[in-house]
Amino acid sequence: MAVIRVQLPAHLRTLAGVGREVQVEVAGAVTQRTVLDALEQAYPMLEGTLRDHTTKLRRPFIRFFACEQDWSHHGLDDPLPGAVASGREPLLVVGAIAGG
């Protein structure tokens, strides 16, 4: 069982009633899918805010970063970097802003 650190943007912290960073436990491979599944299980009020209820795909204007790399377009089942899987680095959830 891996303990994964996840940093959330302010509006989702408020919704979940948590601080800047939460920890979730993931059994098996540490991927975006397994981390988001664990996050939604621990904080059900976040379900549907990060990814679509039906397709489970990332919502527009939500980005995922791991080890200073944008993981938003990686496959949901691609293993996250070892530093995230070991808990040394957090998975960052960032609310993207559109405009010009």
Look up the CATH topology: Ubiquitin-like (UB roll)
Shape: globular
The SSE string, one letter per element, is: EHEHEEHE
- The total beta strand count reads 5
Rg measurement, Å: 13 Å
Within the largest sheet, what's the order of strands?
2-1-5-3-4
Could you give a short account of the major beta sheet? 5 strands, mixed
Task: Give the count of helical stretches.
Answer: 3
CATH architecture identity: Roll
- List low-confidence stretches: none
- Ends: how far apart? 43 Å
Class computed from helices, strands and strand pairing: alpha+beta
CATH class: Alpha Beta
**Strand percentage:** 15-25%
CATH homologous superfamily caption: Beta-grasp domain
- Mean pLDDT comes to 94
**Portion of residues within helices:** 10-25%
| Tally of distinct domains | 1
How would you briefly describe this protein structure?
This protein is an alpha+beta fold and 100 residues long.
Structure description:
The chain has 100 residues and is of the alpha+beta class. It has one domain: Ubiquitin-like (UB roll) (Roll), CATH 3.10.20. The chain contains 3 helices and 5 strands, in the order βαβαββαβ. Strands 2-1-5-3-4 form a 5-stranded mixed β-sheet, covered by helices on one side. It is globular, with a radius of gyration of 13 Å. The mean pLDDT is 94.
